[in-house]
Amino acid sequence: MTAQASSPSTEFASIEWRGRTVRVEHQWIAPERRDAPLLVFLHEGLGSVAMWKDFPERLCAAAGVRGLVFSRPAYGRSTPRAADETWDVDFMHRQAHEVLPAFFEALGIAEAPWLLGHSDGGSIALLYAARFPDAVRGLVLMAPHIFVEDVTIANIEIARDAYRSTDLPAKLGRYHDDADSAFWGWNRIWLHPPFRQWNIEAEIAAIRAPVLAIQGVGDEYGTLEQIRGIARRVPGTALLELPACGHSPHRDRPDAVIAAATDFITAQRA
């Protein structure tokens, strides 16, 4: 009989952020691969540990790496937003410059990991790599944002209406202890008028790590100018534009994403 790997167990780390102690839900994948690179997964604007499902385990197995999956504060089983907490235009910068370093320190991570980010998580990965260029081994990005587009705002407005009028809160409640915390933190800042000027194109030029940027041709939350703009700013960026794919390549085209990410990570290890 072949032994089957056990599912990752959920743990919590505590960090100090925004004047209070915040616990961060996380899971380790294949920690026994001590000599393998570490790949950290950064979820989308409504994501969490649970919402990744089995994608992180599949990718880590294919690439032969260790994995770390976590829910940002306000998401999943991490500490929800405080009742009076609102996010400003710099909310992704604060995640990249404050939360992620504090989280790594709490876990005793001293090595330079790979970062895999989806949507807002991809933008946070870019901002972290730009601020700490020597602390990142490489980036795999899926549908990241580097500026705000009309199509993004239009579909976030649709999501707001759906949250108010459908069973979307109950659906998100499967993945978050406090669905309102997750949804309104994300939705309100993206629809905040000053956020239309958010743009990180100039900042990402400081990135020195290798980058693979993936986007669906049918992405409903952004055009292909998002990843093409990264390629113009970060020399050597590899692009993968996937047909028959929307905003979530790891759900719409998981096999293609796993193959491309595995090849990219393996090539950098050679």
Automatic annotation (TrEMBL):
Superkingdom: Bacteria
GO cellular component: membrane
InterPro entries, sorted: AB_hydrolase_1, AB_hydrolase_fold, AB_hydrolase_sf
SUPFAM superfamilies: alpha/beta-Hydrolases
Any matching Pfam family: Abhydrolase_6
Domain AB hydrolase-1 intervals: 39-260
Protein name per UniProt: Pimeloyl-ACP methyl ester carboxylesterase
Naturally occurring in which organism (per UniProt): Acidovorax soli
